[in-house]
Amino acid sequence: MSPGGSKARQRAETRRTLISISRDLFAERGYHAVGLAEIATTACLTKGALYHHFGSKTGLFHAVVDDVAHEVSAEVAAAADAADTPWEQLLAGCQAFLTAGAAPARGRILLVDGPAVLGWHDWRALDEAASGAHLAEALTGLVEQGVIEAQPVEPLTRLLSGAMNEAALWLARSDDPERDLVAVGRSLDRLLSALRVGG
């Protein structure tokens, strides 16, 4: 491997290490309770290395939120792909989002600190690029197939996404998430069934 390739791999590994360590710390205590010095020390790196890769604590947190969002998105896509019909794929994907987003560590990063630290517009862009894209694609297909009544997909996507984000946030704070996940899943099934032609 060329020296340039070795350096690129080392940079990628350092970046991955910083994201992983800071993700654990942010999940445990929240964004505002974790300092850059602690992250750098835990990673056995200097604060200068952290600034070099991310520019700021906010830049690092942006990378962490993006990491969590794409992890959840991958789980949603895998659950949807395992279902047989487009309608069942929608249901499975939505349920997977609630399950993935309800984990307290993810909920704190993605749904509590994410919008507060990054600002609504930046956080929303990350959400749309990850799970939101899957939801829009699924709904578009169902409208085109006549499974859902013909209607503009964007407002429907935003309504369902907002509802599921709120539900996941509630689940992340629940004192009995397993019980409440079942209840939310049933409510979501009823909500989605109302969209189906012939319901």
From TrEMBL:
<dbReference type="InterPro" id="IPR001647">
    <property type="entry name" value="HTH_TetR"/>
</dbReference>
<keyword id="KW-0804">Transcription</keyword>
<feature type="domain" description="HTH tetR-type">
    <location>
        <begin position="12"/>
        <end position="72"/>
    </location>
</feature>
<protein>
    <submittedName>
        <fullName>Transcriptional regulator, TetR family</fullName>
    </submittedName>
</protein>
<dbReference type="InterPro" id="IPR050109">
    <property type="entry name" value="HTH-type_TetR-like_transc_reg"/>
</dbReference>
<dbReference type="Pfam" id="PF00440">
    <property type="entry name" value="TetR_N"/>
</dbReference>
<dbReference type="InterPro" id="IPR049484">
    <property type="entry name" value="Rv0078-like_C"/>
</dbReference>
<dbReference type="InterPro" id="IPR009057">
    <property type="entry name" value="Homeodomain-like_sf"/>
</dbReference>
<dbReference type="GO" id="GO:0000976">
    <property type="term" value="F:transcription cis-regulatory region binding"/>
</dbReference>
<keyword id="KW-0238">DNA-binding</keyword>
<keyword id="KW-0805">Transcription regulation</keyword>
<dbReference type="Pfam" id="PF21351">
    <property type="entry name" value="TetR_C_41"/>
</dbReference>
<feature type="DNA-binding region" description="H-T-H motif">
    <location>
        <begin position="35"/>
        <end position="54"/>
    </location>
</feature>
<dbReference type="GO" id="GO:0003700">
    <property type="term" value="F:DNA-binding transcription factor activity"/>
</dbReference>
